[in-house]
C-alpha cells in the first residue's frame, strides 16, 4: 500500500519494551521479528529508516521504555545517568546484532538511523536539568549507536524551534511538523554547517486520539497541498503516520493535560492516516498519491485490493466467570499498605486490592494515588468508580462490620510524552484514606496481569453456564465471558463493543486490546490472520458488566468516531 502511494521508504520505530520484556530476556520472534520486516521492505524495493529511540514516544506504553527500568536502584531515565546508559547500551548492542547486517553499508535496505526522539521537546520540559547535561546525554546515545556499528547517516527529529536542545553534532537535524519551507532550510543550515539535506521527519496527515475525547480529523486537500509544497522545494518528508495500525494488547500509551491527569490512547491507531487501520485506501491516500505521481520518476504500481472482510452476526458466550471469586482464591501478596504494580513485579493488567474491616467505617474514600482506573466493591457489591482520566479520586463509602473493601485497579497505559514520563508507577501509589484516616494493616493484593488468556476450564467453582440466573447474580461484577465460533472462511473483521462497558478481548489467545463505552472507538479490529477456518475462541474480560451479555457480533466497518 505504501509503495502504491508513491513512497520509496518505510520508516519504523523499534519498541525496546516489546523486545526486552524482562531484564536480559530478548524476544525478536513472530510478530516481533524486526529483521524479517526490514527484509520484506527491501524485497519490495523500498528503503528503510530505523527509529530505535531508545525513547520513541509513538503513543506507545511508556514511550517504548521497559516498565521494569523503574525498579532499578539509582535509575533516572532519559538522563546522563550511569544505570540508564548501561541499559540503553545493552539494548542498542542487541538491536545491532539483529539488524546490523541490513544496513545499506552491508548491502541492506536501512539508509538512516535516528538518535533518541524529539529530545528538544524534553529539554524544554525539563528545565530543572542543565542544558549541558541534556546535551551530554544526547551525545552519548548517538555514540552508543555509532559504537554498536550503526555506520549509516544518523539524524535527530524535533520541532524546528527546539533544535538548540535536540540536535547533536554529527547527526542531521530534521524538523517535525514544519510547514514553512524557508524556515526549515534556515534552521537546518544553522545547526548543520550551512548545508542540507532538508527533511521533515514527521509530517502529520492525521493526529493521535484518546479515550473520552473527539477523534481528530485532518482535511485531505490540505495534506495534499502541503505534500506538493515539500516536493516542489526538494524537501524529503516522512508521513507520520502513513499507516498507524493498532495498539494490540497493553501497548497503548497515554498523554496528560490540565483537564485530565491521564489521557489514555485508543486501541486503534488509525490516526486518520492515508492508509486506514485495516490497511484500506482512503480519499487522503488518493489525494497524496496523485501529487506524488507528478514529482517522482520511478513507476508507481496499482493500488492493491483490500484484504477480505467478513461479518459474524452472532458469537454465543456460553460461559461466564466471577473474577473477584476466582481472584480471591489465588495466593495474595500481603503488606501493611497497598503496593504498586512495580513493587509486585507486574507490568500491565489489573490488581485487586482488598482489606477486611472488623469495625464499621463510613465517609469519604480517597485514593489520590490511583493509577489509573478503579471499580470499588464492598463484599462483592459495586459501590462506585474512581478514574484518573476524569480526575475522580474520591467517593462516599459505607463499610459495615466484618466486611471487605475490594478495589479492582487497571493500568491504562504509561505516559509516553512530557516531563511526567519519569513518574510512571501503576496501581495505588499513595495512601488510601477513609474520613481522612490512612488505612493500613493487612492489605491483600491479587494479581491479574492478563498476560495470557484466562483459562476458564481451570477456574472450578467460579464458572457458570451463561444463563439468566448467572446474569442476575453477576450483574455489576467483573466477569470473564467465553465462547467459541466456527468459520468456513476467514477475513478481517471488527468486533462491535458499543453496548458493553470496559475491558479487553482475547481472540484465539491473542489480546486484541481495550474497549471502553466512553468512545470514540466502539469497535476493535481483528486481523483475519488471527482467525482460522473451523473453531475459534473468544474470551472477554468485562470490568463493569452493567448489562450482562450472552453474545457479541462483528461488523465490516469500524466505528472510531462515536463519543458517548
TrEMBL record:
Positions of the Glycoside hydrolase 35 catalytic domain: 2-294
Gene3D superfamilies: Galactose-binding domain-like, Glycosidases
PROSITE patterns (UniProt xref): GLYCOSYL_HYDROL_F35 (PS01182)
Entry annotated with the keyword Hydrolase: yes
Signal peptide (UniProt feature, chain positions): none
Catalytic residues of the enzyme: 118 (proton donor), 202 (nucleophile)
Alphabetic keyword roster: Glycosidase, Hydrolase
Beta-galactosidase 1-like first all-beta domain sequence ranges: 338-448
Domain Beta-galactosidase galactose-binding: 478-536
Highest taxon above the source species: Bacteria
One matching Pfam family: Glyco_hydro_35
UniProt GO molecular function: beta-galactosidase activity
PANTHER family: BETA-GALACTOSIDASE RELATED
Gene Ontology BP annotations: carbohydrate metabolic process
Protein name, as recorded: Beta-galactosidase
Family to which this protein belongs: Belongs to the glycosyl hydrolase 35 family.
Keyword Hydrolase: yes
Amino acid at each position: 500500500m505504501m509503495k502504491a502511494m508513491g513512497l520509496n521508504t518505510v520508516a519504523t520505530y523499534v519498541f525496546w519494551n516489546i523486545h526486552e520484556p524482562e531484564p536480559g530476556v530478548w524476544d525478536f520472534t513472530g510478530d516481533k521479528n524486526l529483521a524479517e520486516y526490514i527484509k520484506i521492505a527491501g524485497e519490495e524495493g523500498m528503503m528503510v529508516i530505523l527509529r530505535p529511540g531508545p525513547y520513541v514516544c509513538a503513543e506507545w506504553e511508556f514511550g517504548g521504555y521497559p516498565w521494569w527500568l523503574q525498579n532499578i536502584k539509582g535509575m533516572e531515565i532519559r538522563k546522563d545517568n550511569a544505570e540508564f546508559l548501561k541499559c540503553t547500551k545493552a539494548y542498542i548492542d542487541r538491536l545491532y546484532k539483529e539488524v546490523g547486517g541490513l544496513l545499506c553499508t552491508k548491502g541492506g535496505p536501512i539508509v538512516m538511523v535516528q538518535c533518541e526522539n524529539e529530545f528538544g521537546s524534553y529539554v524544554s520540559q525539563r528545565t530543572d536539568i542543565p542544558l549541558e547535561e541534556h546535551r551530554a546525554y544526547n551525545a552519548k546515545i548517538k555514540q552508543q549507536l555509532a559504537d554498536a556499528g550503526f555506520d549509516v547517516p544518523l539524524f535527530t527529529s524535533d520541532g524546528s524551534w527546539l533544535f538548540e536542545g535536540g540536535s547533536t553534532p554529527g547527526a542531521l537535524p530534521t524538523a517535525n511538523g514544519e510547514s514553512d519551507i524557508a524556515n526549515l532550510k534556515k534552521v537546518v543550515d544553522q545547526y548543520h554547517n550551512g548545508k542540507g539535506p532538508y527533511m521533515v521527519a514527521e509530517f502529520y496527515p492525521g493526529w493521535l486520539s484518546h479515550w473520552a475525547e473527539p477523534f481528530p480529523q485532518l482535511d485531505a486537500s490540505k495534506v495534499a497541498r502541503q505534500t506538493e509544497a515539500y516536493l516542489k522545494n526538494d524537501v524529503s518528508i516522512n508521513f507520520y503516520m502513513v499507516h498507524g495500525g493498532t495498539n494490540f494488547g497493553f501497548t497503548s500509551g497515554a498523554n496528560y493535560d490540565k483537564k485530565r491527569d491521564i489521557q489514555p490512547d485508543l486501541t486503534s491507531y488509525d490516526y486518520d492516516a492515508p492508509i486506514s487501520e485495516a490497511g484500506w485506501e482512503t480519499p487522503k491516500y488518493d489525494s497524496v498519491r496523485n501529487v506524488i505521481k507528478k514529482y517522482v520518476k520511478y513507476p508507481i504500481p496499482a493500488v492493491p485490493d483490500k484484504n477480505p472482510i467478513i461479518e459474524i452476526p452472532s458469537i454465543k458466550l456460553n460461559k461466564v466467570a466471577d473474577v473477584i471469586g476466582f481472584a480471591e482464591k489465588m495466593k495474595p501478596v500481603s503488606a501493611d499498605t497497598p503496593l504498586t504494580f512495580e513493587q509486585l513485579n507486574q507490568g500491565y493488567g489489573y490488581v485487586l486490592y482488598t482489606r477486611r474491616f472488623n469495625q464499621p467505617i463510613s465517609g469519604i474514600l480517597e485514593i489520590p494515588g490511583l493509577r489509573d482506573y478503579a471499580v470499588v466493591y464492598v463484599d462483592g457489591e459495586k459501590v462506585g468508580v474512581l478514574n484518573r482520566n476524569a480526575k475522580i479520586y474520591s467517593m462516599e463509602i459505607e463499610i459495615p462490620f466484618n466486611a471487605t473493601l475490594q478495589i479492582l485497579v487497571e493500568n491504562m497505559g504509561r505516559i509516553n510524552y512530557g516531563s511526567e514520563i519519569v513518574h510512571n508507577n501503576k496501581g495505588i501509589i499513595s495512601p488510601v484514606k477513609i474520613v481522612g484516616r490512612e488505612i493500613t494493616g493487612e492489605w491483600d493484593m491479587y494479581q491479574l496481569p492478563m498476560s495470557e488468556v484466562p483459562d476458564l476450564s481451570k477456574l472450578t467453582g467460579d464458572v457458570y453456564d451463561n444463563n439468566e440466573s448467572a446474569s442476575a447474580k453477576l450483574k455489576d461484577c467483573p466477569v470473564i465471558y467465553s465462547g467459541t465460533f466456527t468459520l468456513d472462511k476467514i477475513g478481517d473483521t471488527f468486533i462491535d463493543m458499543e453496548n458493553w462497558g470496559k475491558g479487553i478481548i482475547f481472540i484465539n489467545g491473542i489480546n486484541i486490546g481495550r474497549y471502553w463505552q466512553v468512545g470514540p472507538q466502539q469497535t476493535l479490529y481483528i486481523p483475519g490472520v488471527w482467525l482460522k477456518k473451523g473453531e475459534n475462541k473468544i474470551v472477554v474480560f468485562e470490568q463493569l458488566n452493567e448489562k450482562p451479555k450472552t453474545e457479541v457480533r462483528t461488523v465490516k466497518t469500524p466505528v472510531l468516531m462515536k463519543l458517548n
